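Hey, can you fold this one?
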Amino acid sequence: MISPSLWQPFTLGRVELPHRLALAPMTRNRANPDGSPGPLAATYYSQRASLGLVISEGTQPSADGQGYPNTPGIYTPAHVDGWREVADAVHAAGGALYIQLMHVGRMSHPDNTAHHRRPVAPSAVSAEQDMFTATGPQKTPVPREMTATDIEATIADFRHAAASAIDAGADGVEIHGANGYLLHQFLSPNANRRTDRYGGSMENRSRFVIEIAAAVAEEIGADRVGIRLSPAMPLGGIDEGDIDSVRTQYRYLVGELAALNLAYLHIHHVGDDDLLRSLRDLWPTAILVVRYGRTREQIADDIDAGLADIAPLGQFALANPDIVERLHTDAPLNDVDPATVYGGGEAGYTDYPTLTRN
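Sure. Predicted structure:
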């Protein structure tokens, strides 16, 4: 049985939400060649607007931020126009849209980008991961270490992308600091071997993330900004050290970010509930928590335990555009078709059946 706490309204930044569910950000690889959202994106997101808070797929803030084929951007006028259609459709269906700003850093391959440049990263250390490309899987190359000028430019790119998202009609942005991508790479000692003010100590490794969050908050207002973190998440070749190192790192980082009074902190949680509790205690506004492998009966567990305010849904929402109604009525759920998650057209994107449309 679904806990009644899931249906309580909630104020998140400038957005009034009807309940405690949200759409988790999920890469779908269906953008146009120029990086604008694909022709079905407005349909896809508006179908899921009953979730209230709709967090978009990872969206690059610059050309160097792209890692995978056919992912969208939010830094050109064409991108803004495309996302405006999405925002208008989500709003018309009663939802609020946050665009996730995702710079992949070293998790890229030149064959996946229009410019074909080497990826950039905190240090010239390959992720040693298989990367999907048009010619099949290829190893991620050794990236180019970012200069101090590159770091300044990337912070400016995030600022510009956030402003572009608001211009497109989005209600806010989520900064992707998780899952092995650029910001997470700066946090991780095995990916960040710098000896300047952005590397070495825990404080220095956190600096880039804090500076991006501060710049974005200054640009569009802190109450329009969320940030996603994934303590101890080993994706993308990341190794953040032992449990004590991870706890120390993230308690420091979240404490510094808390001073910015952002709209929310989004934790991709891998099981350290003691750390999650301490971050909850440090954070002054909303916390979103997503975990792997939850059953429908467990969706509200973190809310009931006081560890979260909102429970974002990933695969449940991907395969069930009417997931809110299905949870309300205890209706059966569609299963995800893994063959259609990434790339393609309508199949597995906008054609999942609803309770009223088969």
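The domain at 4-340 is CATH 3.20.20.70 (TIM Barrel). Let me know if you want another pass with a different chain boundary.
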